[in-house]
Amino acid sequence: MTHRILRTRALIAGIAGCALVALAGCGGGASGSQGGSSGPVRGGNLVFANPQDAQSMNNTTTFDNNSIWIFEQIFQPLFTVTNNGKGVMPWLATGYKMSSDKKTYTITLRKGVKFSNGQPMTSADVKFSIDQNRKAAQGWGYIDTAISSVDAPAPDTVVIHLKFPWAPLLADLSLFANGIVPDNYGGKTETQFYSDPVGTGPFKWDYWHKGSALKLVRNPYYWQKGKPYLNSVTWTDVPSDNTRQLQIKSGQAQIDQFPAWSTVSQLKATPGVDMSLFNSTETNYLAFNEKRKPFQDVHVRRAISLAINRNSLIKAVLFGNGKPANSLFPPQVPYYDPDTPGYQYNLAQAKQQMAASSVPHGFTTTLLIPTGNSDYSTIATILQAELKPLGITVNIQQLDPNTANSNFQSLDYDMSLTLWTMDIPDPDELATFGVDPNSGAKSFFTAYDNPTVVADTHKAEEVTTPSVRQRLYNVIQTDAARDAFMAFLYYSPYPYVTTSNVHGFYVTPLGNYHMEDVWLSKQS
Amino acid sequence: MGRMTFVLRRLALLVPTAVGVTIIAFFMIHLIPGDPARTILGIHATPRAIAILHKQWGLNRPLADQYWLFMDRLVHLNLGQSLYYGVPVWGLITSRLPATLWLITYSAVLAVAISVPLAMIAASRKDALRDHVVRAVPLVGLGMPSFWLALVLQTVLAVKLRLFPVTGYGAGLTGHVQSMFLPSLTVAVALCPVVIRSLRASMLTVLGAEFITTARSKGVPGARLFVRHVLRNAVIPAVTVLGINIGFLIGGTLIVEQVFAIPGIGSLMIQSIFQRDFPVVQAVTLVFGVMVVLVNLLTDVAYATLDPRVSFDR
Fold first, then answer.
1. Rounded to two decimals, what is the model's pTM?
2. Would the ipTM clear 0.90, i.e. be above it?
3. Greatest extent of chain B over all pairs of C-alpha atoms, in Å
């Protein structure tokens, strides 16, 4: 399993107040990374070469990115993420009003929106969709825990009642899991519906040959006039990096999701293909298990964080295409603080921290990584060498991905590598996931417990004034960095290769893309 | 014993073999650490969510109960549901088996098409240059890793010359023949050296036989002699060699399936092991086991058909 497959879609949370809601037009969508000289052309089938098959089209229970990026073309939420990944804009909604106690949101729906079966979308569909997600106990239901009820007083109006003021609400609503499906699944069972799903998105269901290809075709009722441009989009499963690259070169596929980093510079120079590095929210970390000695000692964690040369990792793993991380949050997330004092390489200070620790002469430990992930193997080897001057002997423990993941989540490890990406333009989920030991993730599976940080995290959820939230998140980032509960390693972009006839393809920092904006010119 | 009785007896032996395969596959996949619920829930796996899925899938029950349930379903020709996709395993296998069968059959056909003429060329003049070349050059194919050979074939024949698609299974008969050529050739190149050597050796033995000398003295022309007398007699040991190698091949198609993105059951197997999709791993292992037994049976039948001296009696 590559680190791409491990990639999480961290999600959540919102944007405070209307200030962050771009009331810009609905037709915004994605702006192209490449432009065509003669304007969009209709027609064509675009083929993605994906490293892994989708898992399910059920948007309320699926955590797998390969599925999410596909069903986002079928189901659409009321609000969507802006292109810079830092806000939301109206999508199937046109606006909203918040009550003075900040516990009731009245949302107006866009007129003229139809499902791909021709049925108009109404507030009953919206109520059903959000209620379904709230029920998804083993899915994304927790995202909507602040919601107490949803009303549909008129066909174009939805009212959401909250249990308490909740800043991330609009960002929560922009999550794919809150995408709109027909009321009562159009009379089908849940299983029947998701095997032939119907939504308001630019594409509708054609077929899914599991392990081979999934195809969507143009939705003739799509609400953005003139879009989508493509007749169809097909996602094919091509596990081998080399094979995906050959498919692009031969024109058999048009977009390669995640080429190997080692090929990026070569692809940049290859005629007929465009290599894009999109700003992302992907952040890579070294996690310490504070249930194991000596990682409950902050000096040990700081010493290790200080001994890691981030630039050498970026050079070796990303071939220079990344930036050292200084915070738990990535720069593309609202409330990221560029001045967060995350530890950077300083061997002298690392030795001082080690001397002040409970193990001044060093110790032996293990670094858990999954097999088959060459990036992680490289990082592990570098860390092994970099921690030696501190007297730390690192044994690399390679386990198959499922077992490694299982051990990591059960806190059965000393140190491990992990990463995070956002899906919703609000830091709440990452903060809760990362620093709250009482969340399901036990502080990113590190058992880190700083009551002040936890309290600030929950305070930031209920405050809707952006400046106050910024102050709170600055403190959270600083405290988490000083505690060095994880070593923040690097921020990585999203690499995508397209053939040169692909236009308008853009990936937001959260990983979403809008296929309705993409078109194909004739291959030169 | 007639041929039919022999075949039926061998088919009956499939039952204990299949049961053995199910026991080994079931307990081995459950012995490996890892949890399908964690695959599906990813980093969002909370103890509650894991417990819900375990209950839904019956993984909270004792292992013996789970095996019994699996066997009970199997008797009713129900292979269960895929934990990952949530669809019947039978449907997954039947949709992916044709690609693997195509690959195996096409590879065997290509291996024969390449090996027979080369073995004839080699055997036609023992220890001459052509014999050495035929014996030496295919060995390179045996030594080349299949993923590397696949890459070379894809780069040259698919990307540069655009003669074949880089990947895929194709649609329709022509599509399959075209799309599956490169993967089948990759497999065949590894098969050929063994078949050529075996065929060449048996051809040389046959060429030394008295009936060949007789045929020659009667003035049978070279080509006819080779095809009608030498090849027919020499092909028998080669069939066994080919049969055994196809048995290995069935388990070994997965690399080629991965590299050429062929939706076969080899790649399904790999994917399911990583995802701990227990019902699919068990079912695919069973299918592989049955296929190996059937290929061995077909080899034996072919052997006896080609050589009338071989009896079906044991």
1. 0.86
2. no
3. 85
